[in-house]
Specification:
Layout lengths: L1 H27 L55 H23 L1
Helix pairs in contact: 1-2
Length: about 110
């Protein structure tokens, strides 16, 4: 039971640090554009569904050719959790499972 409390406390601390860092980042660098947003023009960067010969993506911005924002993996977003958070969640779940198995075996 003590391990569960320890993992929960460490998880709360990691989340607080991440939220503080994110809040500081949004104050220092606002994410809203200050000027007019420019639409992406269709041009020679169009891939027609095929990869370029060098094997990398021709478009490196956050918008696709249609102007729709691409879905990014949660681990690369600015407010992504540190790698310690999923580990703590897993270990806390394992501690809950271990506690449950102990209680079942004692019954």
């Amino acid at each position: 039971m003590l391990a569960i409390k320890d993992f929960t406390h460490a998880l709360k601390e990691a989340r607080t640090v991440r939220k503080g860092r994110t809040a500081h980042r949004t104050i220092a660098w606002p994410t809203e554009p200050r000027g007019k947003s420019s639409k992406q023009k269709r041009g020679s960067n169009e891939s027609h569904g095929r990869a370029p010969p060098n094997g990398t993506s021709a478009s490196t911005d956050a918008f696709s050719i249609d102007g729709v924002e691409r879905l990014l993996h949660y681990s690369i977003l600015p407010d992504a959790p540190d790698s310690i958070e999923p580990q703590l969640l897993f270990l806390r779940g394992a501690a809950y499972l271990q506690q449950t198995m102990y209680l079942i075996s004692q019954a």
